[in-house]
Amino acid sequence: MSFYDTLRHFADSYWLAGMIVVFLVLCLWPFRPGAQSRNNAAANSIFEDAGDE
């Protein structure tokens, strides 16, 4: 069995649907309602302890 056949069998199974669901969850995770404060903290973390040098 070749590598292509293995990937084709994998894509034809329900695992593909599972991978799509996981992908969508990971893409939409930062946009959930309770994440705004964490996103702002992460975005501004590079500016902490920065002086006017």
Question: Would you write up a description of this structure?
Answer:
- The protein is mainly α and 53 residues long.
- It is 62% helix and 0% strand.
- The chain contains three helices and no strands.
- The longest helix has 14 residues, at 15-28.
- The protein is elongated.
- The model has no long low-confidence stretch (mean pLDDT 87).
Layout: helices, strands, pairs:
Blueprint: H1 3-12, H2 15-28, H3 36-44
In short:
By secondary structure, the chain is an all-alpha fold. It has helices spanning 3-12, 15-28, 36-44.
Q: Output the number of helix runs.
A: 3
Quote the beta fraction: under 5%
User: How much helix is in the residues?
Assistant: 55-70%
How is the quaternary structure best described?
Answer: single chain
- Spans of 5+ residues with little confidence (pLDDT < 50)? none
Q: What's the shape?
A: elongated
Mind telling me the C-alpha Rg? 20 Å
Average residue pLDDT: 87
Structural class: mainly alpha
Number of DSSP strand runs: 0
Q: What pattern of helices and strands is seen along the backbone?
A: HHH
Distance between the termini: 62 Å
For the sheet with most strands, the description reads: none
Quick tags:
53 residues, mainly alpha, 3 helices, elongated
